[in-house]
Design a protein that fits this description.
Elements: H1 8-21, H2 30-42, H3 47-64
Helix pairs in contact: 1-2, 1-3, 2-3
């Protein structure tokens, strides 16, 4: 799934947001969850698509008050 052209920062934001959503109910933060799925799908595409999806995810997190869990490295 992860391509070498995908930056470590995009992988970190994916896992950090995923970790932040785990304690939430599955029906909470629908837009954030949708953007998270979009980022995951984009990771099989071009770096530009990944950057755009990561930006939408960051915006959705800010609007929903979701704070991604800081990671020092991807799991």
């Amino acid at each position: 799934m992860w391509r070498t052209s995908i930056s470590a920062e995009h992988v970190r934001i994916f896992f950090a947001t995923d970790a932040a959503l785990r304690p939430a109910r599955s029906d909470e933060h629908g837009q954030v969850r949708s953007c998270l799925a979009e980022l995951q799908a984009a990771m099989d595409g071009s770096p530009g698509a990944v950057s755009a999806a990561a930006a939408r995810l960051a915006e959705a997190c800010a609007e929903a008050g979701v704070v991604p869990t800081p990671l020092t490295s991807p799991p």
